[in-house]
Design brief:
The complex is a heterodimer of chains A (about 325) and B (about 350). In chain A, about 30% of the residues lie in helices and about 20% in strands. Chain A contains eleven helices and eleven strands. In chain A, the strands form two sheets. Chain A has an eight-stranded mixed beta sheet, sandwiched between helices. A three-stranded antiparallel beta sheet of chain A has the order 2-1-4, with helices on one face. Chain A is globular and about 65 Å long. With about 350 residues, chain B is of the alpha/beta class. In chain B, strand 11 and strand 12 (about 315) form a beta hairpin. Chain B starts with 6 loop residues before the first strand and ends in an 8-residue tail after the last helix. The chains are: A alpha/beta (about 325), B alpha/beta (about 350). Chains A and B meet through helix 6, helix 7, helix 8 and helix 9 of A and helix 8, helix 9, helix 10 and helix 11 of B.
């Protein structure tokens, strides 16, 4: 499932976000320090087609959550645009919803589940209680649960309630920010299966944000890999896993623990994620990259568009990566 | 096993009295760990894996207590020692690595102060020698420029480097065994691989026994020699890693492995297997086998009697299906493709 000739539902165009992390003015004056800027997201472009699941993977500090927040409008980009197209399903403008990581922090503990779910129902002709019950049954809970409070549910059940709440607004597109990383494996499997079923049944599009390549592989049609705020590789799922091009993608795949690699003695990846306030020059990955040369240290790589995928790496461009 | 185990836990029961009844977060748990061996303890939240680790090192908060059973370190009982005696064992004979490195380090002391203190107290060395030892320990865990970094405070290190410092601290007194409780859960994948490799290498070199507690099946598969799977306070399966992860016997282990998404294989478009329901609460642990309400293969014996650990290949599984009396059920029942 690629964008193809269909118009994109969501398009991020050279998106950027800078945070000012300077000390207060007086401290700067007294200590003679300059402003400090954190480039959380730099020049990120991608498209999400209707009915497509696009995943962003990256480690901490890669800017994945910042992008998710910008897409739903919780943060304003400092550069670039976000274009949200018309919903092909309804013809009206696309409706967005978001599912957050923590099923404990994202719900008002004093509200009943019915009110949490029905808050986004705008149409006064809808019976809110009945709709909430219907949605609860859709996500595998029972309609009676609508009268309960969030604390009466386990983490997995709360994340189901979060899914029901997102669906209440009849969305076309849902940003899912690490929706299962707070859950146990067996519960994670339940929630992932549910989210995949709903995506197919309701023809939804997801922006699925995760640090876990295995989860992303299970959910996404297309995957973007982020490193220190830049998109280093963007490819269809099967192509990415069969033939990762960027050295960082390769490193991530290599480092991911595997169930069938008993007593694996492969040398672990080198180095750690650099400080995003003071990122390395040139390609931000060069201090950890086995293929880095002088050019990588000085010049940030352009995004190279290949057939159906893109990658930002000098080594790939120069054919040194094979 | 020819040599006697470093750690030997027998029928360990931990109880916590509460207003609503006595909870048993750890129930009849037994296992051994040999020198140089890594025993992985896996399970989901509430399985009792961390509580088992705390019981071994005598760190159960009152009113919780070890109700029965034995913990032996190189043959000597350590579960009935006085707190002052236990304190001499912790850090000296049993090293500890916890999930959050910041919680194991004092933010007001430099890394060097903390390492030197540990070394002075446990090995009885002088200050200058202790400092030399501390620098060597930091070098060994891969901290660059250790002779300068030793005077830094914990907040000046990144998360991965901090966890390295904690490992250096845990191994500083040359312990006979190390308990690592979710040591990589707070770390990124690329750093996690480094920490796991480091822990395994150091313990193997020094012949320390390791109890690695984690919820991550991938980490267990790559690191452990043997695995214990816990469910609702009990060990439901224990055996060599290849068997327990690769070809599990207990239906819960089967479900757990099937529910774990993987980056390899051609199963990209397959559904994840899911176990219905969730881990029971400690106040309402089901009768018989605690897993029976979620088990796709439960039969009439399962809700009446809790199964003992029964032999299955080269591992042990607490499941009636492994009992010779029930072999006919194994043959007749076909394991459902997707457990739903």
């Amino acid at each position: 499932m690629t964008a193809g000739p269909r118009p994109a539902l969501v398009r991020a165009d050279h998106l950027g976000r800078v945070f000012d992390v300077s000390k207060p003015w007086l401290n700067r004056v007294l200590e003679g320090e300059d402003r400090k800027l954190l480039h959380a997201v730099t020049d990120v472009s991608f498209e999400i087609a209707p009915n497509e699941v696009y995943a962003l993977v990256g480690e901490s500090g890669s800017g994945k959550s910042t992008i998710g927040k910008m897409i739903v409008g919780l943060l304003q980009p400092t550069a670039g645009d976000i274009a949200i197209g018309e919903s092909p399903r309804t013809g009206r403008s696309t409706r967005l919803q978001m599912i957050f990581q923590s099923p404990f922090a994202s719900m008002n503990p004093r509200w009943r589940v019915r009110d949490i779910i029905a808050e986004t129902i705008a149409d006064p002709s809808i019976d809110r209680g009945a709709r909430a019950g219907e949605l609860l049954e859709k996500v595998g809970l029972s309609a009676e649960d609508a009268e309960k409070f969030p604390h009466e549910f386990s983490g997995g059940q709360r994340q189901r309630i979060a899914v029901a709440r997102a669906l209440a607004a009849d969305p076309d597109f849902i940003v899912c920010d690490e929706p299962t990383s707070a859950l146990d494996v067996s519960v994670q499997a339940q929630v992932l299966n549910l989210m995949r079923d709903l995506q197919e049944e309701l023809a939804l599009s997801y922006l699925f944000i995760s640090h876990d390549l295995a989860v992303v592989r299970y959910m996404a049609d297309r995957i973007g890999v982020l490193y220190l705020g830049r998109l280093v590789e963007d490819a269809p799922r099967d192509a990415l896993f069969a033939e990762p091009l960027h050295p960082y993608t390769r490193m991530l795949l290599e480092a991911a623990p595997r169930l069938d690699a008993f007593g694996r003695e492969a040398p672990p990846p080198q180095g750690e994620i650099p400080d995003p306030i003071d990122p390395p020059s040139g390609c931000a990955f060069h201090p950890r990259c086995p293929l880095a040369n002088r050019r990588c240290k000085t010049e940030a790589p352009r995004t190279l568009a290949l057939e159906n995928r893109c990658v930002a790496c000098h080594a790939v461009e120069e054919g040194r990566s094979a | 096993m020819t040599q006697s185990p470093v750690l030997s836990v027998t029928d360990l029961v931990v109880e916590i009295p509460t207003r609503r009844g006595v909870l048993r977060p750890v129930d009849s748990v037994s296992f051994d760990i040999a020198a140089g061996e890594v025993l992985g303890v896996v399970g989901e939240s509430g399985a009792g894996k961390s509580m088992t680790g705390s019981a071994v090192i005598g760190l159960i908060d009152p009113p919780g207590r070890i109700a029965s059973g034995e913990v032996r370190l190189n043959g000597a009982r350590i579960d009935n020692l006085r707190p002052s005696e236990m304190r001499r064992i912790r850090g000296k004979r049993i090293g500890m690595v916890f999930q959050d490195p910041m919680a194991s380090l004092n933010p007001l002391l430099t890394v060097g102060d903390q390492l030197e203190e540990t070394i002075q107290v446990h090995l009885g060395l002088r200050r200058a020698e202790a400092r030399k030892r501390a620098i060597a320990a930091l070098e060994e865990v891969g901290i660059p420029a250790a002779d300068r970094r030793i005077d830094s405070y914990p907040h000046e290190f990144s998360g991965g480097m901090r966890q390295r410092v904690v490992i250096a601290l845990a191994l500083a007194a040359e312990p006979e065994m190390v308990i690592a409780d979710e040591p990589t859960t707070a770390l990124d994948v690329s750093v996690q691989a480094q920490i796991v490799a480091l822990l395994r290498r150091l313990c193997r070199e020094r012949g320390a026994a390791v109890m690695l507690i984690t919820h991550d099946m991938g980490v267990i598969a790559e690191t452990a020699d043997r695995v214990a799977v816990m469910y609702a306070g009990r060990v439901v399966e224990i055996g060599p890693v290849r068997e327990v992860v690769g070809a599990p016997s207990h239906p819960y282990s089967v479900g757990l492995m099937g529910a774990t998404p993987s980056t390899s294989g051609d199963a990209a478009s397959e559904r994840l297997k899911q176990i219905p329901g969730a881990m029971p609460r400690l106040l309402s642990i089901p009768s018989g086998c605690a897993f029976h309400p979620r088990c796709p293969r439960a039969f009439d014996t399962c809700d009446r009697e809790a199964p003992p650990l029964l032999r299955s290949g080269s591992s042990l599984a607490a499941c009636w299906l492994c009992s010779p009396d029930h072999q006919h059920l194994v043959q007749s029942a076909t394991l459902p493709e997707a457990i739903e």
